[in-house]
Each structure stands twice: as structure tokens, then as C-alpha cells.
């Protein structure tokens, strides 16, 4: 298999780390997967910081990008050209928001191959070890649909994935957020045949992402967005201009009062003589 051959270095590395966590640190296999997930997410922190900054930058310039889309909505090619130009001028990289997810894909599939061949290649070295987790999951190398505990893990995966997606998509457009929230439900039927240990890996990384989103919201303030103006918005008051230099020489008058005009003389009509 081509994918398996490409991921062989990752597979060997993950297998070595799992064996070290089990034999040297003394963790059971399931908790070794949890520890491996935390180690991977810690290595991805720099990419995560770039992701957060990129999402905030997109949110800051969202009104300007929306204006470009409205201006060239009839010419999609021109709109894309203007958007790319805008990205370059403002140093925006939309792909930065996907870097942590893309970096985890090789780890995900490599761990799948490790768990698939676990009983033949790794488990015989440690015959007295336990493949269960918390007394609920009997075998982390078995498919998730092989035991009721696998469905419990899938339910936890769905909830954690929805929560993580919601926290990390606050700056996206409505259509993108809906797509990101629907995707985990579609993946449920896809990962039914995955090993339970792989679902455990994804649940752990979702919980990490959820905690990361909560911390980010509290510690990093949202970028200030430009104030929206409408036809009802009152114009800004003009700043007070300094008085002219000769203002002090003129006599002071009441504020806002017009200068008094000279009294008007009323002429009386002369009586006609008899």
C-alpha cells in the first residue's frame, strides 16, 4: 500500500514512543496513547499560535474582504484576484488556520497502522500487558463497533469534536461554521471500523483543542472591529477649532447670540390738512 509505505517512518516513530511510554514510564497502552496525543499537541503549539493569530487577522479584516466580495460578485475571477492582492498587502495567510489539522493527519493514519498490526508486532513483546482502558474498553486494538464501549467513545468523540469546532470557528463565516459543525457527525459512520485506541486519540486531541479554545478566549482579547455605520448614525461632532488670534481684542458677546441691530425708526404718517 502506497500510503503505508510513505507513513512507515511515522509508524516506526509512534510505535517506539508507545513502547517507551509503556516499558520505561510504566503507562498502560491506553494511557500511553493519551500521553502520546498530549506530546503531539505540545509539539504543534507553534502552529496553533499561528492559527489563532491568522483567525484573528481574518476577523479584523472581514468587513473589507466582504466589501471586495460584494463589489466583484459578478466576476468571480476578478474577485479572487482582488482577494489574493488584499491578502498579500495585509500579510494574511488563510491556510494558517488549517496547519494544526493538516499536521495531525500523518500522525492519525500512522497510529492507525500501528494499532492494526499491534497484536502481531508489539503485543507479543509484552504478553502480560493489558489492552483495556478504565475497565470499560476491553481492547483498544479492536474496532470501535465491536463492543458497546466503542459507541460510548464515539459519542464522546462527537460531543468533543462539536465543542472544539465551535470554539475554534468563531471568526469564520456562517456557512463555513455550519460545515465544520456538521462534518463530525458525518465522520461517525466512517470511523466505526477504526480501532478504539484511534478514537481515544481523537477524543484526547478534541479535549485539548477545547481547553485551548477556552484559554485563548480568556487570555487573548478579540481584535477591535470597525464600527458599523448606517443611515441613522449621527455624524461625528466637529472638533472645536482654536479661536482666532484677534478674538481677545473683540468685546465678548453671549454664546450663540447674534449681534444686536440698531432700533428701527417708525415714521408716523402726517394728517391730511382740511
Alpha plus pi helix count: 11
Q: Give the N-terminus to C-terminus distance in angstroms.
A: 134 Å
Assembly state of the chains shown:
single chain
Share of β-strand residues: under 5%
Order of helices and strands: HHHHHHHHHHH
C-alpha geometry: elongated
**Total strand segments:** 0
The gist of it:
By secondary structure, the chain is an all-alpha fold. 57% of the residues lie in helices and 0% in strands. The protein has eleven helices and no strands.
Note down, in words, how this protein is organized.
It contains eleven helices and no strands. With 274 residues, the chain is mainly α. It has a domain at 9-58 and 97-219. α5 packs antiparallel against α6. The chain is elongated. The termini are far apart. Residues 225-241 and 247-259 have low confidence and may be disordered.
Strand and helix map with partners:
Layout (H helix, E strand, L loop, with lengths): L1 H5 L1 H16 L5 H15 L1 H16 L1 H10 L4 H14 L9 H18 L1 H4 L26 H21 L5 H14 L8 H24 L55
Looking at this protein, list some descriptive labels.
274 residues; mainly alpha; elongated; 0% strand; single chain
